[in-house]
Amino acid sequence: MKKKSAEKSGNRSPVYVVYGKDEFLRARRLQSLLLELSGDDGDTTAVASFDGGTASLIDILDDVRTPSMFSPLRVVCVRDADLLFAKDGGDDDAVPTAPARGSKTKGSASRTLTVRELMEKYIEHPCDTGVLVLECKTWPKNTRLFKIVDKVGQNIDCEPPKDGQFEAWVGRHAREEFGCSFAGGAAARLVELVGDNSGLLHMEISKLATYILPRIEIRKADVEAIVGESRTEIVFKLMDAITIGKPEAALRMWHQVLAGGRSAEFMAVGGLRFAFERLYNSKRMHSQGASAYDIKSALRIWDPENMLPKQLSRFSLAEAGALLRQLLRIDVNSKSGLGTVENAVEKLIVETCAAN
Fold first, then answer.
1. What's the whole-model pTM score?
2. CATH classification of the domain holding 187
3. Are the C-beta atoms of 245 and 352 separated by less than 8 Å?
4. What sign for the dihedral angle of Cα 317, 265, 51, 138?
């Protein structure tokens, strides 16, 4: 197999690394990259996918070196590649190196290359007909591997916006993805209602962009009309009902959140997790001496009904943590076929209200 020198070829690179902690941003960028590499017709038959947690690097590299029968370019994508490099020290990808030239010691032991070293060797001399795409949650910039990829290929940063920068991200995302903009205060209000979740923000911006047509500017009134009673805000009202011990109202809002089928259930669990995490973080700050005002400011909590002081009084730090753990168990059990989210959350609501 003919090798190419360690340099980029035209507009295509031999290796890409899509990394960042934000799952939505990472998945979205990975999808667009694979479509770009698939050519004008978007044919993905030449794309092979591997799971970094179970695949062997030897198999991955063999695949990327194997020419495609249906396309001039072979694309190999390794998802959760962090897990691939975590194997260093194991035997799955052990490749012994030859003794150093000139060694006078007979039978001198060869050293085994690590997964990281094997990857470095490949990237320095990549294949002409293949492209390797790695998807990672973490990808430290101070490593030799990062620097080699930066020279030979592309490191694609999908880290989420830092605290306090989501408002600017919302404005940029609306402009780049939907060709619209936010009027004064509208972007800030959207972030207050939805929180710093890029996936949820994307969906709400998409709805707003459709709602305002033929206008291209999203106003604060638009946000209130479309997002003001979104599932995210209903979840917070549900949390308020639990706080003051009103199970009927809480259950009614829970069923309202679930309206929309399976996708709505997924969103509902995410919204509850966000609300419970916010409660836990608020209680932790309160236990360290922070006032309700300071907590609202630090966590960007929109609380027009001033319910936070009641929540801080109602729940202990241990109880807030227990709610989070219970929700995690509900989520895991539902995905394992051990129960439904709807019934399990109903039970959680009733029991928590009863303990009020």
1. 0.59
2. 1.10.8.60
3. no
4. negative
* Neighbour-count burial for 146-181, b at 16+ CB within 10 Å, e otherwise: eebbeebbbbbebebbeeeebbebbbebbeeebebe
Given 226, 258, 276, the domain boundary residue is 226
Angle formed at CA 36 by CA 34 and CA 39, multiple of 5 degrees: 105
Decide: residue 186, CB within 10 A, 0-12 exposed, 13-18 middle, 19+ buried: buried
Token pair for 230: 């979104």
Name the DSSP class of 110: P
Count the residues in the chain. Answer: 356
- The tokens 């300071």 sit on which residue? 294
CATH of the domain at 337: 1.20.272.10
Per-residue model confidence as pLDDT tens for the chain (356 residues): 333 433 454 578 999 999 998 888 998 899 889 988 876 555 556 688 999 989 999 999 999 998 877 777 889 999 999 999 887 654 444 445 555 455 554 544 566 888 999 999 999 999 988 999 999 999 999 999 999 999 999 999 998 888 778 999 999 999 999 999 999 999 999 988 777 888 889 988 998 999 999 999 999 999 988 876 566 667 878 888 888 888 998 898 888 777 655 556 777 787 788 888 889 999 999 999 888 888 987 887 877 778 899 999 999 999 999 999 999 898 888 877 777 888 899 999 999 998 76
Q: Is 126:74 a contact under the CB 8 Å cutoff? A: no
Helices and strands counted in the chain (H then E): 16, 9
Last residue of a domain, one of 102, 130, 157: 157
Print the domain residue range for 260: 231-354
SS3 285: helix
| Cα 81 to Cα 137: distance, rounded to the nearest angstrom | 8
